[in-house]
Write a structure and sequence with these properties.
The chain contains 5 helices and 4 strands, in the order H-H-H-E-E-E-H-E-H. By secondary structure, it is an alpha+beta fold. It has a 4-stranded mixed sheet. Strand 3, helix 4 and strand 4 form a beta-alpha-beta unit. The protein is flat, with a radius of gyration of 17 Å.
């Protein structure tokens, strides 16, 4: 049997000890959403950090409910615009069932994809339920795909 990574074991242990979102009130969910994942040695060890040689920029794009925060990962030295080499485009939507998650949690994965594939990766920080009812998150994700394809 394959060995399970220690980080994954630790993450599983932590998540099994948390209260189910099904038992939370809307106010409790919104309060939990307000707690952001810090950046420190332990968190970077668990979630990973951006791969070396990857440039990261925080931007926003126009969306149906206002500006949508995005984070763009690209190999260092990669330029955009006329005359630049064509690169694959990946649009990443963090997990969390449209209720939890944030840009920070995708740093390792998006950075790895940008580094290994040579792609430009756009990570989208869509609006979260319950503060923003369905289909708000889906509309944000769609707007991000349309923007990324056009850009």
């Amino acid at each position: 049997m394959a060995r399970m990574d220690r980080r994954l074991k630790l993450w599983g242990w932590v998540t099994r000890r948390q209260v189910s979102v099904a038992r939370m009130t809307e106010a409790e969910v919104v309060a939990l959403q307000g707690r952001h994942v810090p950046s420190n040695v332990v968190i970077d060890w668990i979630f990973g950090a951006v791969a070396p040689g990857i440039e990261v920029s925080n931007r926003s794009l126009p969306g149906p409910g206002g500006d949508i925060p995005i984070r763009v990962y690209r190999p260092a030295g990669a330029t955009s615009g006329a005359g630049s080499a064509a690169r694959p485009l990946v649009v990443y939507f963090h997990g969390g069932g449209f209720v939890f998650g944030e840009l920070r949690l995708g740093d390792w994965l998006c950075g790895q994809v940008a580094a290994k594939v040579g792609a430009v990766v756009v990570s989208v920080d869509y609006r979260l339920a319950p503060a923003h009812r369905f289909p708000a998150a889906v509309e944000d994700c769609y707007a991000a795909v349309v923007w990324a394809a056009a850009s």
